[in-house]
Automatic annotation (TrEMBL), chain B:
UniProt-listed Enzyme Commission number(s): 3.6.3.-
Lineage of source species: Bacteria, Pseudomonadati, Pseudomonadota, Gammaproteobacteria, Oceanospirillales
Origin species: Marinomonas gallaica
Enzyme class at the top of the EC tree: hydrolase
Record SMART domains: AAA (SM00382)
Keywords on record: ATP-binding, Hydrolase, Nucleotide-binding, Transport
Pfam families named in the record: ABC_tran (PF00005), BCA_ABC_TP_C (PF12399)
UniProt-recorded name of the protein: Lipopolysaccharide export system ATP-binding protein LptB
GO molecular function annotations of the record: ATP binding; ATP hydrolysis activity
Gene responsible for this protein: lptB_1
Family annotation (PANTHER family): CONSERVED COMPONENT OF ABC TRANSPORTER FOR NATURAL AMINO ACIDS-RELATED, HIGH-AFFINITY BRANCHED-CHAIN AMINO ACID TRANSPORT ATP-BINDING PROTEIN
Limits of the ABC transporter domain: 39-279
Any single Gene Ontology cellular-component annotation: plasma membrane
Amino acid sequence: MSKLINWFTEGRSSGQYTLPFVILLLGVTVLASAANLLLPQDSALYVSTYSITLLGKYLCYAMLALAVDIIWGYCGILSLGHGAFFALGGYAMGMYLMRQIGDRGVYGHPELPDFMVFLDWQELPWFWLGMDQFWFAMVVAVVVPGLLAFVFGWLAFRSRVTGVYLSIMTQALTYALLLAFFRNEMGFGGNNGLTDFKEILGFDLQADSTRVSLFIATAVILSLVLLASQRILSSRLGKVTLAVRDAEPRTRFIGYRTERYKVWLFVYSAVIAGVAGALYVPQVGIINPGEFSPINSIEIVIWVAVGGRGTLIGAIIGALLVNYAKTRFTAIMPDGWLFALGALFVLVTLFLPKGLMGLYGQLQSKRRQSAEQEVQS
Amino acid sequence: MSALENSLQGLRETFRRDQVWPFLIDKQSKVDVSNQMILYVEGLNLSFDGFKALNDLNLYVNDGELRCLIGANGAGKTTLMDVITGKSKPDAGSVYFGQTHNLLTKDEADIAQLGIGRKFQKPTVFEEQTVFDNLELSLKTDKRVIQTLFARLSPSEIDRIDEVLAIIGLKKHRFMKAGALSHGQKQWLEIGMLLAADPRLLLIDEPVAGMTAQETERTAELLTSLAGERTVIVVEHDMEFVRSIARTVTVLHQGSVLAEGTMDQIQNNKDVIEVYLGEEAAEA
């Protein structure tokens, strides 16, 4: 009997679609990659390298949406500053890629990136040291967002800042970083950011094979993050997380230090965002302070809302769909996109409170209602 | 000069022989009830913007007792519970759980883990989760983050949940979402959550608000059956209900204790009749 209950409590979680989704995601990735590398360019099924890069970019956004969904959908912390963690991860990767340029820059300096030569700097700032090592740059891409999230979360959650105040503080955080990274003196390339990358781990960034590899790496890492998150959120820790979202005082009064749960979940989420940023930069070829802009962080929230918060897959689907729409829409009417995005947000909030993932349940309950009405009449 | 005196005073305070340094006290130590007393509340004062919610309040509760707190709105009942459970800090006074645990130095989570459970006035359960999950979360377990991440239900824990489900009569609703329960059932689930944690002291705020007569009766049975093994403090407005369960009643008025005794004693107490039952007595 007890084993049965155990099995029930384990298997009842909403993760039943996760594995099929991961298989689908990886399947599409493999097919698209094969279509790019193996088929001739004039074939009808050929997938252009541009499309591959675009898909890779979408997957990075999907990972970012996943990070926001974990803390917003499951823990009720509405972060409007997750773009900051994404950009920090991106900058770490960007610094590595800059160091990889070596003496092939415009000024041909063996060690200093172009913008430093331009600013007449004589030697590398201390925080650029070690960034020529890939492993070290990746550690930084994970640790820096994680550390920032830890300090921020520890201060905010320990003083029990919640709700809209917390959201405003996260906006301020990302805005402050935006202003800081705009400054040339910061040593991150100022306004122009970091760009003109040549190669990653010795592979040419312009080559089709490198692009496809980055795309596959993104898909694999996204899948792993999705599976890990699903596992974490269906453990008892996930139940505590939901409890914090729905009734934080109650959770505290049954003995959980809710602020610690929030801090660690926030750190986990920030690390995912940092990894997404690190995967994003080599694919788009540039990172600049614009990534810190508050608008970007708000957009992430809209992706999650469209897909359905509190459903990890929903966040991914939302990010993919909205970004595809953005690519299409900005090609037709570049100035109209923000209006469309705003309208989308309003419509989703009004008519799809649970997002696309909740659509099925919504339709079902509507059908049930109309059936009941028929019975009554 | 006074600075010197102050530091001397501080030194003397530090080396008082009748006290144990805080860092020497074992955090998980048992509740010391060798004097048959489980809760000592002394000289409690708390004011909000000049309003004295608690005014030199003293309250002693015996181990295993079922105590009812009554009093008009604003008498300080809920504020007292807030102080005991660590939600509010008083301006002055002391609250000891057993003889050793100073509750004023602890936060909500610590106090809950010591074995003090609290039911809110408005039933508060985790609505999006099943009844079973609600109880699982409330179990007396290691509640640190990593331990919770890798926690698995042990057979004895499942038995404990079953036991609680039987007590609160929600066995059939095990896998139902807590939000779908009726109001009375939510009240019971919340009491069940307290029980799952195996507490020493239960603070129960208005357990029968919004319950049918039948449910009220069953709640009374449940609470009286708990007393003895555990200590129960009930805040309630429903005088019928209080009469049906109470052995000792404490009347609060304007933040301090007005009277204490059996229901009969209370009802014949002049002060109480004046301030609390005054209107009813006048009407009758």
